[in-house]
Structures are given as structure tokens and as C-alpha cells.
Amino acid sequence: MSAIQRIALVLTIIGAINWGLIGFFQFDLVASIFGGQTSALSRIIYGLVGIAGLINLGLLFKPSEEVSREPRPEAR
Prior knowledge:
Strand content: under 5%
Number of strands: 0
Low-confidence stretches: none
Mean pLDDT: 88
């Protein structure tokens, strides 16, 4: 996994935690830290999380190294 994918994964996890807080407690952590949903900094964070989610879409279609390394069982 490249560094950009790791950063994207961390941002996606932050976004997931934020959405969980919104869903369960109606509390937007990003907005409360950075000055509301309409502040420029909050919008940048939301945008970065969205881009990170798009980058992580590639992980869905990347073959797992563990699966590809396992030898195929012999047909008997």
C-alpha cells in the first residue's frame, strides 16, 4: 500500500467516525473544530475526505496479496 493510499485510508476513517457521530449523536466533529459546516476550513476537510474515499475505491478492485500468494489446491 502506497503512502497516498495510507493517507487516504486515514482520512476515510476520520470521515467515517464523523458520520457515525452525526448519525448517533447529531454532532459534527469537523464543523465544531473548524468553525461550522460553511467555514472554508471545514469545507476543505470535507473535500479531502471525499477525495480520499474516491482513492480508496481502487482498494476494492485490487487483488489481495494473501489470496494471490496461496497455492491452488490440487484437484483430486
